[in-house]
Amino acid sequence: MAATRALVRGVRLGSYSIGRSRSLIFNSVQRRGIAACVDPSIGLTDEQKEFQKVAFDFAANEMAPHMAEWDQKEMFPVEAMRKAAQLGFGGIYVNPDVGGSGLSRLDTSIIFEALSTGCVSTTAYISIHNMCAWMIDTFGNNEQREKFCPDLCSMQKFASYCLTEPGSGSDAASLLTSAKLQGDHYILNGTKAFISGGGDTDVYVVMCRTGGKGPKGISCLVVEKGTPGLSFGKKEKKVGWNSQPTRAVIFEDCAVPVTNLLGAEGEGFNIAMKGLNGGRINIASCSLGAAHASVLLARDHMCVRKQFGETLSNSQFLQFKLAEMATKLVASRLLVRQAAVALQEGRPDAVSLCSMAKLFVTDECFSICNQALQIHGGYGYLKDYAVQQYVRDIRVHQILEGTNEVMRMIIARSLLTES
Amino acid sequence: MSARVLVGVKRVIDYAVKIRVKPDHTGVVTDGVKHSMNPFCEIAVEEAVKLKEKKLVKEVVAVSCGPQQVQETIRTALAMGADRGIHVEVSGKDYETLGPLQVSKILAALAKKEQADLIILGKQAIDDDCNQTGQMTAALLDWPQGTFASEVNIEADKLKVVREVDGGLETIKIKLPAVVTADLRLNTPRYATLPNIMKAKKKKIANVKPADLGVDVSSRLEVLKVDEPPQRQGGVKVETVNDLVRKLKEAGRI
């Protein structure tokens, strides 16, 4: 078997446009779900296992070998993402009639969880892109769907979600970017902050104020790159998520045709929040992938590193730590998958469950990755080791798509309005 | 061409798994261990699907022998582009002792039944490393074989196969019908796409028993013991080349 292993690890010649670039020099970061109790394929249907397998393989072959480089060089991996789109990852829960894959929220969660083991930052961007494509697919009319969705699903064009402003983060409904109707155009003025992909993407889904104060005055407009009056701020320097650029998006008398209005005036906030329900499951799924990879990295390190005459795996404290990490991982996974099913079925508890999932999972998974770094000791702090990148990349999941504090607001409100 | 290709796929322990020997030394632990399609079988499926895309063959049929779980492996082949599958049901003790001889008898019987023109297999499985099934199948059918293929081309009714052999590359021309076994550099298997995985659900997998094919799956081999490879011993440092030569002579190595 050793001889075959060596052969299988030989370097392949050539790669095709939709074939794999297989560096079979085995990447030790990608142990594909090899630990029965934390196996992410437990309880899935055969079809879901197939989806997961493709995603894991893609993550191991096309993403993981580059994740450090993408982070250090701050590269937006357009080619890798387009390869992912060719497999159907560009519009996973978008309707097939406009180029999407038409899968369920649970299928989507499984896929992002697996992809995230290869690179959290890139997968998180892909999930944001998916969210925007879904919003246009669901709330757009047929012309809008046919104009934007096929290119988004193939990632011929990339999308950004623009809600946050310098003055309105958690208090999103107080946003100020105005859109005044003039003839057959809306004239946009204002600034959006922290926009993922901003400046490098082509399609911007922008929440802006067409009416009075509060959520009911907000509408959703699709703005295309190159529209006069659309410009971008400097590229932000971030702790993580470095494979996607983050910039302010600036509107100065930017004229957008009324045909780019998604839904009706005043529906924008609703559209934004519905997009975010799915977005929260996706972000939580990305955290899961990072935590899964980190648990396996920590375990492998413990089996190799020796101190006091024995491997770390003999230390009861560390055994218990690892057990706690694994338990939190499985609990988190179950919650996210339940929330995904609830959202898919349109259950009344779906919004609360998505918030609970985002809150619990992003917190727990950060703790898991952080523990994994600690278990690596000094090596965990070096950029040569992947665990620090998982920690840095998922830290922001506790902040964006609704801070974990806002998640608590949503859950409390749901509990208290019932009485 | 109205050719039909039979592709054998084997479900093996995933290549990334750390193998552990069972405490009773009768085999390796397979319960709860991740399994996937043998990497060389993936290459075989890819080659068959490529031939279909070039319109050189009409139908690709994926075959696997084993218990219920091998249907996962057949589905993977279907998701990569095979048209239909055949599941030869072998389970329990019979499955534990299933080896190349029995599988090649099954494949030979199926080739006749399905009127296949070409059989593509992986050159060997990564669990037993036998490298026998392709050769035995060809012998049972009295078909020519192109093993360790790194390139396959159909020219009229002949197959041009470039083989990777110890001395280098050998090119042979064999008549169809034939058996080909895939080596590492034959191609790079594609990822299944999400739409193809969903289409694969609708493709048919037929169930067949070895008895229906007139094949006796009892084994003529008995596994006596399975052990881990010996632990690597420490080496010895020597000062000069003469010392090295002397030590090698002492150890009977030269």
TrEMBL record, chain A:
Keywords: Branched-chain amino acid catabolism, FAD, Flavoprotein, Oxidoreductase, Transit peptide
Annotated Acyl-CoA oxidase/dehydrogenase middle domain residues: 161-254
Gene3D superfamilies: Acyl-CoA dehydrogenase/oxidase, N-terminal domain, Butyryl-CoA Dehydrogenase, subunit A, domain 2, Butyryl-CoA Dehydrogenase, subunit A, domain 3
Reactions catalysed: 2-methylpropanoyl-CoA + oxidized [electron-transfer flavoprotein] + H(+) = 2-methylpropenoyl-CoA + reduced [electron-transfer flavoprotein]; (2S)-2-methylbutanoyl-CoA + oxidized [electron-transfer flavoprotein] + H(+) = (2E)-2-methylbut-2-enoyl-CoA + reduced [electron-transfer flavoprotein]; propanoyl-CoA + oxidized [electron-transfer flavoprotein] + H(+) = acryloyl-CoA + reduced [electron-transfer flavoprotein]
InterPro entries: Acyl-CoA_DH_CS, Acyl-CoA_Oxase/DH_mid-dom, Acyl-CoA_Oxase/DH_mid-dom_sf, AcylCo_DH-like_C, AcylCo_DH/oxidase_C, AcylCoA_DH/ox_N, AcylCoA_DH/ox_N_sf, AcylCoA_DH/oxidase_NM_dom_sf
Gene Ontology MF: a single term: flavin adenine dinucleotide binding
GO biological process, one term: branched-chain amino acid catabolic process
Cofactors required: FAD
EC class (word): oxidoreductase
Positions of the Acyl-CoA dehydrogenase/oxidase N-terminal domain: 45-155
Active site per UniProt: E401
Membrane-spanning intervals of the chain: none
Family: Belongs to the acyl-CoA dehydrogenase family.
Job description of the protein: Isobutyryl-CoA dehydrogenase which catalyzes the conversion of 2-methylpropanoyl-CoA to (2E)-2-methylpropenoyl-CoA in the valine catabolic pathway. To a lesser extent, also able to catalyze the oxidation of (2S)-2-methylbutanoyl-CoA.
Identification of the protein by name: Isobutyryl-CoA dehydrogenase, mitochondrial
Organism the protein comes from: Sinocyclocheilus rhinocerous
Encoding gene (name): acad8
Automatic annotation (TrEMBL), chain B:
Key word Electron transport present: yes
Keyword Electron transport applies: yes
Source organism superkingdom: Eukaryota
GO biological process, one term: amino acid catabolic process
GO terms of molecular function: electron transfer activity
Gene3D superfamilies named among the record's database cross-references: HUPs
Subcellular location(s) of the protein: Mitochondrion matrix
Keywords of this entry: Electron transport, Mitochondrion, Transport
Residue stretches making up the Electron transfer flavoprotein alpha/beta-subunit N-terminal domain: 25-217
GO annotation, cellular component aspect: electron transfer flavoprotein complex; mitochondrial matrix
InterPro entries, sorted: ET-Flavoprotein_bsu_CS, ETF_a/b_N, ETF_b, ETF_beta_N, Rossmann-like_a/b/a_fold
Subcellular location, principal: mitochondrion
Summary of subunit composition and partner proteins: Heterodimer composed of ETFA and ETFB. Identified in a complex that contains ETFA, ETFB and ETFRF1. Interacts with ACADM.
Family: Belongs to the ETF beta-subunit/FixA family.
Task performed by this protein: Heterodimeric electron transfer flavoprotein that accepts electrons from several mitochondrial dehydrogenases, including acyl-CoA dehydrogenases, glutaryl-CoA and sarcosine dehydrogenase. It transfers the electrons to the main mitochondrial respiratory chain via ETF-ubiquinone oxidoreductase. Required for normal mitochondrial fatty acid oxidation and normal amino acid metabolism. ETFB binds an AMP molecule that probably has a purely structural role. The electron transfer flavoprotein serves as a specific electron acceptor for several dehydrogenases, including five acyl-CoA dehydrogenases, glutaryl-CoA and sarcosine dehydrogenase. It transfers the electrons to the main mitochondrial respiratory chain via ETF-ubiquinone oxidoreductase (ETF dehydrogenase).
Protein name: Electron transfer flavoprotein subunit beta
Organism the protein comes from: Sinocyclocheilus rhinocerous
Lineage: Eukaryota, Metazoa, Chordata, Craniata, Vertebrata
Gene coding for it: LOC107707641
